[in-house]
Protein backbone atom coordinates (compact mmCIF):
# COMPACT_ATOMS: atom_id res chain seq x y z
CA UNK A 1 0.00 0.00 0.00
CA UNK A 2 1.04 3.61 -0.55
CA UNK A 3 1.63 5.73 2.55
CA UNK A 4 -1.25 8.11 3.23
CA UNK A 5 -0.62 11.77 3.90
CA UNK A 6 -1.29 12.86 7.45
CA UNK A 7 -2.51 16.44 7.66
CA UNK A 8 -3.52 16.35 11.31
CA UNK A 9 -2.37 19.41 13.23
CA UNK A 10 -2.21 21.64 10.16
CA UNK A 11 -5.77 22.99 10.40
CA UNK A 12 -7.77 22.69 7.18
CA UNK A 13 -4.88 23.53 4.85
CA UNK A 14 -2.33 21.24 3.30
CA UNK A 15 1.15 21.65 4.79
CA UNK A 16 3.90 22.80 2.41
CA UNK A 17 5.22 19.87 0.36
CA UNK A 18 6.33 18.97 -3.14
CA UNK A 19 5.57 15.33 -3.78
CA UNK A 20 6.65 15.49 -7.43
CA UNK A 21 10.10 16.77 -6.45
CA UNK A 22 10.44 14.05 -3.80
CA UNK A 23 9.57 11.38 -6.37
CA UNK A 24 12.00 12.88 -8.89
CA UNK A 25 14.82 12.77 -6.31
CA UNK A 26 14.16 9.15 -5.39
CA UNK A 27 13.75 8.13 -9.02
CA UNK A 28 17.04 9.83 -9.87
CA UNK A 29 18.80 8.00 -7.05
CA UNK A 30 17.46 4.66 -8.28
CA UNK A 31 18.54 5.47 -11.85
CA UNK A 32 21.93 7.12 -11.31
CA UNK A 33 24.45 5.66 -8.82
CA UNK A 34 26.15 9.06 -8.52
CA UNK A 35 22.96 10.98 -7.68
CA UNK A 36 22.83 10.16 -3.96
CA UNK A 37 26.23 11.80 -3.41
CA UNK A 38 24.92 15.09 -4.82
CA UNK A 39 22.09 15.47 -2.30
CA UNK A 40 23.27 13.72 0.87
CA UNK A 41 24.76 16.90 2.36
CA UNK A 42 21.48 18.80 2.02
CA UNK A 43 18.79 16.18 2.58
CA UNK A 44 18.11 14.03 5.63
CA UNK A 45 15.36 11.37 5.65
CA UNK A 46 13.00 13.52 7.74
CA UNK A 47 13.09 16.25 5.08
CA UNK A 48 10.78 14.13 2.90
CA UNK A 49 7.09 14.68 3.56
CA UNK A 50 5.85 11.16 2.74
CA UNK A 51 6.99 8.57 5.29
CA UNK A 52 7.42 6.00 2.50
CA UNK A 53 9.81 8.39 0.77
CA UNK A 54 11.74 8.74 4.02
CA UNK A 55 12.20 4.96 4.19
CA UNK A 56 13.36 4.73 0.57
CA UNK A 57 15.83 7.57 1.00
CA UNK A 58 17.07 6.10 4.29
CA UNK A 59 17.76 2.83 2.47
CA UNK A 60 19.71 4.65 -0.25
CA UNK A 61 21.81 6.51 2.33
CA UNK A 62 22.58 3.28 4.19
CA UNK A 63 23.59 1.53 0.97
CA UNK A 64 25.78 4.46 -0.03
CA UNK A 65 27.54 4.30 3.35
CA UNK A 66 28.27 0.61 2.73
CA UNK A 67 29.67 1.32 -0.72
CA UNK A 68 26.85 -0.55 -2.41
CA UNK A 69 24.81 0.64 -5.42
CA UNK A 70 21.45 2.36 -4.98
CA UNK A 71 19.75 0.78 -7.97
CA UNK A 72 16.22 -0.64 -8.00
CA UNK A 73 17.21 -4.22 -7.20
CA UNK A 74 19.54 -3.37 -4.31
CA UNK A 75 17.16 -0.91 -2.65
CA UNK A 76 14.29 -3.40 -3.02
CA UNK A 77 16.37 -6.11 -1.36
CA UNK A 78 17.43 -3.80 1.48
CA UNK A 79 13.84 -2.80 2.25
CA UNK A 80 12.60 -6.40 2.00
CA UNK A 81 15.25 -7.71 4.40
CA UNK A 82 14.12 -5.20 7.01
CA UNK A 83 10.41 -5.79 6.56
CA UNK A 84 9.76 -2.31 5.19
CA UNK A 85 9.08 -3.09 1.53
CA UNK A 86 5.31 -3.55 1.86
CA UNK A 87 5.06 -0.48 4.06
CA UNK A 88 6.33 1.75 1.25
CA UNK A 89 4.04 0.20 -1.36
CA UNK A 90 6.06 -2.81 -2.53
CA UNK A 91 8.46 -3.21 -5.42
CA UNK A 92 5.80 -1.79 -7.72
CA UNK A 93 6.09 1.56 -5.97
CA UNK A 94 9.86 1.64 -6.53
CA UNK A 95 9.43 0.67 -10.18
CA UNK A 96 6.87 3.46 -10.52
CA UNK A 97 9.43 6.00 -9.26
CA UNK A 98 11.92 4.82 -11.87
CA UNK A 99 9.36 4.90 -14.68
CA UNK A 100 8.38 8.49 -13.87
CA UNK A 101 11.97 9.76 -13.88
CA UNK A 102 13.90 10.52 -17.05
CA UNK A 103 17.26 11.39 -15.47
CA UNK A 104 18.88 12.83 -12.34
CA UNK A 105 20.25 15.91 -14.10
CA UNK A 106 18.11 18.34 -12.05
CA UNK A 107 18.29 16.51 -8.75
CA UNK A 108 20.17 19.38 -7.05
CA UNK A 109 17.34 21.82 -7.79
CA UNK A 110 14.74 19.30 -6.65
CA UNK A 111 16.63 18.86 -3.39
CA UNK A 112 16.49 22.61 -2.78
CA UNK A 113 12.73 22.59 -3.36
CA UNK A 114 12.13 19.70 -0.97
CA UNK A 115 14.34 21.24 1.72
CA UNK A 116 12.51 24.56 1.44
CA UNK A 117 9.14 22.86 1.96
CA UNK A 118 10.56 21.02 4.96
CA UNK A 119 11.72 24.28 6.55
CA UNK A 120 8.27 25.77 6.00
CA UNK A 121 6.69 22.78 7.76
CA UNK A 122 9.15 23.21 10.61
CA UNK A 123 8.12 26.86 10.83
CA UNK A 124 4.46 25.82 11.12
CA UNK A 125 5.35 23.27 13.78
CA UNK A 126 7.40 25.75 15.78
CA UNK A 127 4.64 28.35 15.46
CA UNK A 128 2.17 25.88 16.93
CA UNK A 129 4.55 25.07 19.80
CA UNK A 130 5.10 28.76 20.51
CA UNK A 131 1.36 29.46 20.55
CA UNK A 132 0.91 26.65 23.10
CA UNK A 133 3.72 28.08 25.22
CA UNK A 134 1.84 31.39 25.28
CA UNK A 135 -0.94 29.73 27.27
CA UNK A 136 1.44 28.47 29.96
CA UNK A 137 0.84 31.24 32.47
CA UNK A 138 2.81 29.35 35.14
CA UNK A 139 6.02 29.84 33.12
CA UNK A 140 7.81 33.19 33.33
CA UNK A 141 7.23 35.32 30.23
CA UNK A 142 10.96 35.96 29.93
CA UNK A 143 11.62 32.22 29.69
CA UNK A 144 8.83 31.75 27.14
CA UNK A 145 10.22 34.52 24.94
CA UNK A 146 13.75 33.15 25.15
CA UNK A 147 12.69 29.60 24.29
CA UNK A 148 10.52 30.91 21.45
CA UNK A 149 13.45 32.73 19.91
CA UNK A 150 15.65 29.66 20.25
CA UNK A 151 13.07 27.60 18.38
CA UNK A 152 12.80 30.16 15.57
CA UNK A 153 16.56 30.53 15.17
CA UNK A 154 16.94 26.75 15.34
CA UNK A 155 15.06 26.44 12.05
CA UNK A 156 17.68 28.41 10.15
CA UNK A 157 20.63 26.56 11.64
CA UNK A 158 21.86 23.89 9.27
CA UNK A 159 24.86 21.63 9.16
CA UNK A 160 27.91 23.15 7.47
CA UNK A 161 28.30 21.89 3.94
CA UNK A 162 31.98 21.44 3.17
CA UNK A 163 33.51 19.82 0.14
CA UNK A 164 36.68 17.74 0.03
CA UNK A 165 39.87 19.79 -0.10
CA UNK A 166 43.22 18.57 -1.43
CA UNK A 167 46.04 18.44 1.13
CA UNK A 168 48.19 20.51 -1.25
CA UNK A 169 45.73 23.41 -0.94
CA UNK A 170 45.59 23.07 2.84
CA UNK A 171 49.38 22.93 3.14
CA UNK A 172 49.78 26.07 1.03
CA UNK A 173 47.47 28.12 3.21
CA UNK A 174 48.93 26.58 6.39
CA UNK A 175 52.49 27.48 5.39
CA UNK A 176 51.40 31.04 4.60
CA UNK A 177 49.72 31.24 8.01
CA UNK A 178 52.83 29.95 9.82
CA UNK A 179 55.02 32.40 7.93
CA UNK A 180 52.79 35.35 8.81
CA UNK A 181 52.71 34.37 12.48
CA UNK A 182 56.49 33.95 12.59
CA UNK A 183 56.80 37.54 11.37
CA UNK A 184 54.29 38.72 13.95
CA UNK A 185 51.80 39.74 11.27
CA UNK A 186 48.91 37.48 12.30
CA UNK A 187 47.54 36.36 15.66
CA UNK A 188 45.74 33.05 16.24
CA UNK A 189 42.88 35.00 17.82
CA UNK A 190 41.24 38.40 17.40
CA UNK A 191 43.55 41.34 18.04
CA UNK A 192 42.28 43.79 20.66
CA UNK A 193 44.54 46.59 19.39
CA UNK A 194 46.76 46.67 22.49
CA UNK A 195 50.01 45.09 21.34
CA UNK A 196 51.36 44.04 24.74
CA UNK A 197 48.04 42.43 25.66
CA UNK A 198 47.88 40.70 22.27
CA UNK A 199 51.39 39.34 22.83
CA UNK A 200 50.32 37.81 26.15
CA UNK A 201 46.96 36.42 25.01
CA UNK A 202 47.72 35.69 21.33
CA UNK A 203 44.46 37.48 20.66
CA UNK A 204 40.98 36.83 21.98
CA UNK A 205 39.63 33.38 21.14
CA UNK A 206 36.00 32.75 20.31
CA UNK A 207 33.92 31.71 23.35
CA UNK A 208 36.50 33.25 25.73
CA UNK A 209 35.14 34.80 28.92
CA UNK A 210 37.33 37.80 29.76
CA UNK A 211 36.89 39.84 32.94
CA UNK A 212 38.52 43.27 33.26
CA UNK A 213 38.88 43.84 37.00
CA UNK A 214 40.12 46.86 38.92
CA UNK A 215 39.35 49.35 41.65
CA UNK A 216 36.70 52.05 41.07
CA UNK A 217 37.62 54.95 38.75
CA UNK A 218 40.63 53.15 37.30
CA UNK A 219 39.45 53.43 33.68
CA UNK A 220 37.97 49.95 33.19
CA UNK A 221 35.07 51.18 31.06
CA UNK A 222 37.29 53.33 28.84
CA UNK A 223 39.72 50.44 28.44
CA UNK A 224 37.12 47.88 27.34
CA UNK A 225 35.40 50.45 25.10
CA UNK A 226 38.70 50.94 23.32
CA UNK A 227 38.98 47.17 22.87
CA UNK A 228 35.46 47.11 21.44
CA UNK A 229 36.27 49.99 19.11
CA UNK A 230 39.46 48.32 17.88
CA UNK A 231 37.82 44.97 17.17
CA UNK A 232 34.91 46.64 15.37
CA UNK A 233 37.20 48.88 13.31
CA UNK A 234 40.03 46.46 12.50
CA UNK A 235 38.03 43.27 11.97
CA UNK A 236 34.70 44.75 10.84
CA UNK A 237 32.92 42.58 13.39
CA UNK A 238 29.72 43.74 15.13
CA UNK A 239 30.04 44.49 18.84
CA UNK A 240 27.19 44.34 21.36
CA UNK A 241 27.63 46.61 24.40
CA UNK A 242 25.29 46.20 27.36
CA UNK A 243 25.70 49.04 29.84
CA UNK A 244 24.13 48.43 33.24
CA UNK A 245 25.65 51.57 34.78
CA UNK A 246 26.12 54.34 32.21
CA UNK A 247 23.74 55.69 29.60
CA UNK A 248 24.51 55.25 25.92
CA UNK A 249 25.23 59.00 25.70
CA UNK A 250 27.89 58.71 28.42
CA UNK A 251 29.53 55.83 26.58
CA UNK A 252 29.56 57.80 23.34
CA UNK A 253 31.26 60.72 25.10
CA UNK A 254 33.96 58.33 26.30
CA UNK A 255 34.46 56.89 22.83
CA UNK A 256 34.66 60.37 21.31
CA UNK A 257 37.07 61.53 24.00
CA UNK A 258 39.42 58.63 23.32
CA UNK A 259 39.16 58.87 19.53
CA UNK A 260 39.58 62.65 19.32
CA UNK A 261 42.05 62.89 22.22
CA UNK A 262 39.92 65.54 23.91
CA UNK A 263 39.21 65.48 27.65
CA UNK A 264 35.65 64.18 28.17
CA UNK A 265 34.74 66.91 30.66
CA UNK A 266 35.39 69.60 28.05
CA UNK A 267 33.36 67.66 25.49
CA UNK A 268 30.35 67.61 27.82
CA UNK A 269 30.64 71.30 28.60
CA UNK A 270 31.35 72.28 24.99
CA UNK A 271 34.63 74.00 25.90
CA UNK A 272 36.41 73.02 22.68
CA UNK A 273 39.13 75.05 21.04
CA UNK A 274 39.06 75.95 17.36
CA UNK A 275 41.88 73.50 16.63
CA UNK A 276 39.97 70.61 18.24
CA UNK A 277 36.92 70.76 15.96
CA UNK A 278 38.71 68.99 13.14
CA UNK A 279 39.87 65.96 15.21
CA UNK A 280 36.39 65.82 16.75
CA UNK A 281 34.81 65.70 13.29
CA UNK A 282 37.25 63.00 12.24
CA UNK A 283 36.43 61.00 15.38
CA UNK A 284 32.70 61.22 14.65
CA UNK A 285 33.32 60.12 11.06
CA UNK A 286 35.40 57.12 12.16
CA UNK A 287 33.05 55.99 14.95
CA UNK A 288 30.00 56.28 12.70
CA UNK A 289 31.54 53.58 10.50
CA UNK A 290 32.27 51.00 13.21
CA UNK A 291 29.56 48.40 13.94
CA UNK A 292 29.11 49.01 17.67
CA UNK A 293 25.61 48.60 19.11
CA UNK A 294 24.80 49.89 22.61
CA UNK A 295 21.96 48.86 24.92
CA UNK A 296 21.58 50.76 28.20
CA UNK A 297 18.42 49.04 29.47
CA UNK A 298 18.54 49.20 33.30
CA UNK A 299 18.34 45.91 35.22
CA UNK A 300 18.48 43.87 32.03
CA UNK A 301 18.47 40.10 32.59
CA UNK A 302 20.84 37.53 31.14
CA UNK A 303 17.99 36.07 29.07
CA UNK A 304 17.24 39.50 27.57
CA UNK A 305 20.90 40.06 26.72
CA UNK A 306 21.11 36.64 25.10
CA UNK A 307 17.97 37.36 23.10
CA UNK A 308 19.19 40.76 21.90
CA UNK A 309 22.65 39.40 21.04
CA UNK A 310 21.08 36.56 19.08
CA UNK A 311 18.87 39.01 17.20
CA UNK A 312 21.81 41.30 16.43
CA UNK A 313 23.81 38.37 15.11
CA UNK A 314 20.95 37.41 12.80
CA UNK A 315 20.55 41.00 11.57
CA UNK A 316 24.28 41.40 10.90
CA UNK A 317 24.52 38.06 9.14
CA UNK A 318 27.53 36.68 10.96
CA UNK A 319 29.24 36.02 14.27
CA UNK A 320 29.61 38.83 16.80
CA UNK A 321 33.13 39.98 17.49
CA UNK A 322 32.50 40.74 21.15
CA UNK A 323 29.72 41.00 23.72
CA UNK A 324 30.66 43.61 26.31
CA UNK A 325 28.84 43.85 29.65
CA UNK A 326 29.59 46.83 31.88
CA UNK A 327 29.51 45.88 34.60
CA UNK A 328 29.12 42.48 36.37
CA UNK A 329 28.77 43.88 39.92
CA UNK A 330 31.05 41.20 41.35
> How does CATH name the architecture of the largest domain?
Orthogonal Bundle
Q: How many structurally independent domains?
A: 2
Major sheet: order of its strands? 2-1-3
- N- and C-termini, Cα separation: 66 Å
Radius of gyration: 28 Å
* Mean pLDDT figure: 83
Q: Structural class of the secondary elements? A: mainly alpha
**CATH-defined topology of the largest domain:** DNAb Helicase, Chain A
Please identify which CATH superfamily of the largest domain we are dealing with: DNAb Helicase, Chain A
**Percentage of residues in strands:** under 5%
Which CATH class of the largest domain applies here? Mainly Alpha
User: What are the segments in which pLDDT stays under 50 over at least 5 consecutive residues?
Assistant: 1-7
Shape: elongated
Order of helix and strand elements from N to C terminus: HHHHHHHHHHEHHHEHE
As a percent range, the share of helical residues equals 55-70%
Q: Give the number of helices.
A: 14
Q: Largest beta sheet, briefly?
A: 3 strands, parallel
Amino acid sequence: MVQELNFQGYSDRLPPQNIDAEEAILGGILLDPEAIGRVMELLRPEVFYISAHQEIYRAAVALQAQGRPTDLMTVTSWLHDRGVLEKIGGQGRLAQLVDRTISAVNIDQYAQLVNEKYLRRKLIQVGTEISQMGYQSDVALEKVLDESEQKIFGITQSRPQQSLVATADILTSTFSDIESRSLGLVLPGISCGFYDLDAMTQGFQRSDLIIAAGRPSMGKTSFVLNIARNIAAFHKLPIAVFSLEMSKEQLIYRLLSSEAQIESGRLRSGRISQAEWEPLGNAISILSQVPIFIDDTPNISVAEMRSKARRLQAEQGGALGLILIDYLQL
